[in-house]
Amino acid sequence: MRKEDEKYRNYLQILQEELIPAMGCTEPIAIAYAAAKAKELLGEIPTSVVIEASGNIVKNVKSVVVPNTGGLKGIEAAAAAGIVAGRPELSLEVISGITQAEQEKIKKYLENTAIKVMPLNSDCVLDIQVCLRNGDEYAKVRISETHTNITHMEKNGEILLEKRIPGAVFADTNSDRAAMNVWDIWDFAETVDMDDVRNIISRQIDYNMEISRTGLAGNYGANVGRVLATTYGHNDVVSRAKAAAAAGSDARMSGCELPVIINSGSGNQGITVSVPVVVYAEELGVGEEKMYRALVLSNLLAIHQKTRIGRLSAYCGAVSAGAAAGAAIAYLHGGSYKEIIHTLVNALAIVSGIICDGAKPSCAAKIAAAVDAGILGYHMYQEGQQFYGGDGIISKGVEATLENIGRLGKDGMRGTDEEIIRIMTGT
């Protein structure tokens, strides 16, 4: 693929849009961002707060620790952090600069302020509306479709922004996601000028490997990464790759204050597409350029899958990311396009049944399972084994299979998603 090609520029734009830093699980951070933006509009600390959220937001905020809050969980805590100490100009790092003194202010604000959480009746699975009041003054901010896509701003009855993009999976992007396909992703990864992606990819390596190391060394959540490392040891690269990826999620789900570089709006998916690939690249001694190309491949394959599924779903995003990581690991071993597509399909055939029941410590174990499936998918093809079209949801041709996965994740599991939310909320 040539640099002057429109496709080349499109894939580069996709990486620039997607591989951005976020501190903490992106759903509570989106709430904090909306609350911080509304407080900026209001111009003062509100005395009452109403937060309306779609079911998937509730699902993904309920059980995860909000960073820089002293261990607080939930929608109320995320909103309070954004109101009291958020910096909306930092986007998904909106609460990264909170001090110890501000943490105490957040706790006191929660104790003394009426914060009401209500379901938001919306066809959009990612939808948040925050309304802040102080006396007769109020400000309202709505975020829809993606985590930082502000679609409505209002103050005291004056509409400051109205931007509705119904059904747009990636509403706040300037790239063409519909044009993505596996062959072009492979071609781009093979030919991209390293100078065009070096900063993007090196930042992902630095951030995500750092939180992985922190997770392995610390005590976070269920310590899935440490359990894997202790149980299976460090001699096997498969075990190391799974443990390293899981450990990053262990730390992130339990309030670690390190940022990660996300993929498809998710830090866990960003960790999954990158950390196992780096572990394998170091094991194989392939050199920086080969590792960077593998990471370009992994990131774009995950984004391609999620374009059909959407940001949030009952379909676990780690599955897409783990399959993409497996394909990149095949590439590191010298695999061609043929090895990449068969690895991807094999992995998806193995673990596409994993559900998303919100952000919480067990995400780390699901990541380990998805990475394992990605690696198994590659080794199966090495041994001349594969799943064929007609085997369950697998169809002949990689794009046809990805289309099936998109249907399953976006449409087929809608009822499953609703039931999961009812179970989690006791309704």
From TrEMBL:
Any single biological process term in GO: L-cysteine catabolic process to pyruvate
GO molecular function: L-cysteine desulfhydrase activity
Keyword Iron: no
Record's keyword terms, sorted: Lyase
Domain Serine dehydratase-like alpha subunit residues, every copy: 91-421
Highest taxon, organism lineage: Bacteria
Keyword ATP-binding: no
Pfam entry (one): SDH_alpha
Family: Belongs to the UPF0597 family.
Name listed for the protein in its UniProt record: UPF0597 protein LKD81_05560
